[in-house]
Predict the structure.
Amino acid sequence: MPQPAWHPEALAARLPFLRRRALLTHAVRAFFEARGYLEVETPCAVPVPGEEVHLSAWRTERIDPDGARHARFLHTSPEFAMKKLLAGGAGRIFQLARVWRNGEAGPLHAPEFTMLEWYRPGATLADLIDETHALLRAVLPPVVTCRGVTTDLSAREAVTVADAFARHVGADVLAAGDDAASLARAAGVALRAGETWEDLFFRLMLGRVEPHLGRDRPTFLTHWPAAQAALARRDPADPRVAERFELFVCGIELANAFVELTDAAEQRARFVADRARRHAITGTPDWPLDEDFLAALAHGMPAAAGIALGFDRLAMIAAGADRIADVLWLPS
């Protein structure tokens, strides 16, 4: 029978990784404080967990003193709350937030984990790439090795999704539009029964593109197809793509970033479309739209760029750990 995580021998085995995690926490805070960011804390139990189609939220309940009951969810990200603070004039902000995602477990996934999020008013996608690379170089050694992959942090590459698909799939992902059959033909693969464009996009991304990213140097995968914009704005220079990037280090997906969408009407339309997709895929019941968040956008959230970075994965890379459980004090 495996030892419990608190057992002295089990804890001793993880302690070198955990000490490195603690040093990393201090270094991250120092980095942002030196750049004029304010650390914030937002609620974990919220009435709306988000609208991400493929994330499953933990449900709970709030009971008032008078016995009234209200559905609540453990947030999957502090994104909505932090953007409300931007609309209120908080300026540059960051948070080390505990977040929850049901159905996620494995060497790189835990159902409860820590997200480092930060938002910078006025920043462009290029600004955020520069700042994220500066963070890596400030809090990690110059060369890092994790899960058998060694990455030199002194350099970086930025590649668009379209260029990555052309290089590793041999397909023009933007020319295919939202036509799954067209993308399958261009990629030289058979379309599976019931496979949507999004399904095929991620099959090709995971199978052919991601294995080449973030290996000898960090990779910023930029300018995602507009269908994968999430909460990012479309690129004014090319509305087929969104101003979004994902970061890969040591072959690990580490962060997801947007130049933020600030148009409340477009955001509402995206939320409605996401709900329709979620119903079709999972059939999970709805929660109320986050009207407070939409009101904050309508009030006037400033132009900004923001990023969500998996802090536990960053700790894995810092410590050279093979599993996310190695850098958690009490893995579940």
Remarks:
- The mean pLDDT is 95.
